[in-house]
Amino acid sequence: MTQHPTGNTPERILDHAERLFALKGFEAVSIREITGAAGSNLAAVNYHFGSKMNLYMEVFRDRWISRTRRIRENFDRLLADKPEPAISTVIDAMARSFLDGPLNDEQLRHHVLLMQGELAQPSTALKMIVEEVMQPYQQQLSDLIRPSLPPGISEEKLRLCILSIFGITLYFTFARAAISMVMERDYDALFKTEVIQHITKFSLNGINTLTEEN
Amino acid sequence: MTQHPTGNTPERILDHAERLFALKGFEAVSIREITGAAGSNLAAVNYHFGSKMNLYMEVFRDRWISRTRRIRENFDRLLADKPEPAISTVIDAMARSFLDGPLNDEQLRHHVLLMQGELAQPSTALKMIVEEVMQPYQQQLSDLIRPSLPPGISEEKLRLCILSIFGITLYFTFARAAISMVMERDYDALFKTEVIQHITKFSLNGINTLTEEN
DNA sequence: GTCTATAGCAGGATAGAC
DNA sequence: GTCTATCCTGCTATAGAC
Known about the structure:
By secondary structure, chain A is an all-alpha fold. Chain A has helices spanning about 10-25, 30-40, 45-50, 50-80, 85-100, 105-120, 125-145, 155-175, 175-185, 190-205, 210. The first copy, chain A, folds into 2 domains: about 1-50, Orthogonal Bundle (Arc Repressor Mutant, subunit A), CATH 1.10.10; about 60-214, Tetracycline Repressor, domain 2. Chain B binds a DNA duplex through helix 3.
């Protein structure tokens, strides 16, 4: 028996499937690689999940969605005692809950890579991501920010700003290797804190576009 | 003979390889699919390019790099008669040369998807992308913007801003399907012009972070 | 629930005729 | 330079013993 210390077989398979799908993409990962890493038998994926594609979907359903839930809860907690928060407070909570929130470095990286993979090459999981995560969160952010804006700002313009903040955040996470090369420094803890500060300030100014125009 | 109207065999293979690698990723595309689309024989890829991986690299060397050259030339032309352009002029030229420049919609989409794929899952091509494109362009942008900044702004902070503009631009191109769903509208020509305007304004404000601080 | 064994197929690559 | 035919490897998925 090659039982590993933590978790039963399906859990261990999900762990390694999440990591490998994130780092290499769906097609580039084989069932052999996943079960090998999980220390389980080759047939385990098909027994427990039915197919490779079902396993991939289960990674999103079971792991990815619950991670976003933890991030959202952290976000809500940061704004819990502020009924009408300033825009800067909202952006700060957004960035902090995501980049410096409940997920550790590796989890965040895998989380973003999985999402980014779906955004670039959509499969069945995209619908889930958009409907269960992106749309509700967009709506919440829009509702939080709008009271601080002058009247008449179009919903579309506000949403483009919110999407942009996600875009930057994603980019600084999934393009880590290239950014490290361009910046000519390691993507270490210190750099990460600088990136977080940058994203917050840059985005806050960016969203102020809305209050300036007209 | 299944000779197609335009180009000889290697050219046609490069055409379809670029499109398919961009849309589906390296691993998800088979040589059979590429040669089938190009109307050439299965053995043609290995005869003309040696291997699938060499073909992928050649897509970057022959197509991707030359597309970036056209974008850079367009960028330079937009700033040709301005020896010390304002920051807003630089950003505008950046966004315009990229999003509304020499590449048509489909070319731009494939261009960005190829790049984004390498950034997320680096292969041998990343080094080429960073050294031949990202680093020189970063340097040029930094040199163009710096004269308009108060003294003492760190090179690092400026570079983070420039990277962020790329990040947003990439995001709005590669995540097209998801953005279309979140915005609840088609990603048509009208929407694209709105996105370009948004990116320009958002980024300009974002980069003004640098002049405000301290 | 876990294992071995294998079916059945698709993939990259190559040899050799033309 | 293009074609067919084929090799061989690796893949997903499943059947069936334990």
